[in-house]
Design a protein that fits this description.
Elements (H helix, E strand, L loop, with lengths): L11 E3 L2 E3 L4 E4 L3 E7 L26 E7 L23 E4 L2 E4 L3 E2 L8 E5 L2 E5 L24 E3 L2 E3 L4 E4 L2 E9 L2 E6 L12 E2 L8 E2 L7 E3 L6 E3 L3 E2 L6 E5 L5 E5 L24 E4 L2 E4 L3 E3 L7 E3 L4
Antiparallel strand pairs: 1-2, 3-4, 4-5, 6-7, 8-9, 9-10, 11-12, 13-14, 14-15, 16-17, 18-19, 20-21, 21-22, 23-24, 25-26
Organism: Circaetus pectoralis (black-chested snake-eagle)
Keywords: Glycoprotein, Secreted, Signal
InterPro entries: vWF_C/EGF_Fibrillin (IPR052080), VWF_dom (IPR001007)
């Protein structure tokens, strides 16, 4: 109306600063604030005309108020990045997969993905795995991208996994192994025996023959003539300086005696190994002769004498 001033537009005052109606901002602590203004249904309200008043009055617009609430973080991706420093919400501009941050558009393979390939797009991780044929494989192949389980073996009513080794019931001498669904059996290897056939023996529960221990000998055979000596017998084979003994294993051990002559004229006794030097000498015509020493006779030069100590 003429003669009246136009009221100023309503504002919000927050911490000493004006805020325009509808303005939104973030306060520390991840609080979202907005300036809201309550406006009447009509900018001006005309009151009933009074008889003494010629002009109608206008009601000024109401002031604004600030409303704050915690920031809401709607996550629109499956693998968002953690909230950055100074931010309030996780980010979908990258991906966090198995604890590893991936950049937008990064292509990678998981550590245990078995040839799986993944890509990071807008905070979402999409993975593609190779198509593998169904069923089991004949043998284990760790280097192959398609993991498969080797076939099991069914043998005599029992099931064995791949690589299992087992023995037949009641036959410990046969060893079998399961390989890719098939059973391979083989006999236990036996050592080569060096004993004659009649000395070989197969004991209870044994898979291979063994040699019997030869019977203990009771005597020693010296030669092909059948000369036999019992165990422990000592004898001389013809030389008195050589002695032999029949040992417990049937073998003969002989040892020769070395004689050391300590006298110039030793006496050799038949059947005795070493000469005898223990006897004294002879005295003849004032001269001393050693035992077994020969010398000419003084009475008859054609006679030869010998000193014999008896």
């Amino acid at each position: 109306a003429p003669g009246t001033s136009t009221p100023s537009a309503p504002r919000c005052w927050y911490r000493g600063a004006p805020r325009e109606p509808g303005a939104r901002w973030i306060e520390p602590g991840c609080r979202s604030c907005a300036c809201q203004v309550s406006i009447p249904s009509s900018p001006c309200l005309s009151l009933p005309r009074q008889p003494d008043v010629g002009l109608s009055r206008r009601v000024p617009l109401q002031g604004g108020r600030v409303l704050c609430e915690a920031v809401s973080c709607p996550v629109t991706c499956s693998h968002p990045l953690p909230t950055p420093a100074g931010g309030c919400c996780p980010s979908c501009s990258g991906c966090l997969h198995d604890g590893v941050a991936r950049a937008e558009g990064d292509v990678f393979s998981p550590s245990d993905g078995n040839c799986t390939v993944c890509v990071c797009l807008a905070g979402n991780v999409s993975c593609i795995s190779p198509e593998c044929p169904p069923g089991s494989c004949p043998s284990a192949s760790p280097a192959d991208c398609c993991s498969c389980q080797p076939a099991k073996c069914s043998f005599r009513g029992r099931t064995y996994p791949h690589g299992a080794r087992f023995s037949l019931d009641g036959d410990d001498c046969t060893t079998c192994v399961c390989r890719g669904g098939e059973v391979e059996c083989s006999f236990a290897p036996c050592p080569v025996l060096d004993c004659p056939q009649h000395q070989r023996h197969l004991g209870p529960g044994q898979c291979c023959f063994t040699c019997r221990d030869p019977p203990a000998p009771a005597s020693c055979f010296v030669d092909d003539n059948g000369v036999e000596f019992p165990i422990g017998q000592i004898w001389s084979p013809g030389d008195p300086c050589e002695l032999c003994i029949c040992q417990a294993d049937g073998s003969v051990s002989c040892k020769r005696t070395d004689c050391v002559e300590t006298c110039p004229y030793p006496i050799r006794i038949p059947g005795q190994c070493c000469p005898d030097c223990s006897a004294g000498g002879c005295t003849y015509m004032g001269r001393i002769f050693y035992n077994n020493e020969t010398f000419p006779s003084v009475l008859d030069p054609c006679l030869s004498c010998i000193c014999l100590v008896r």
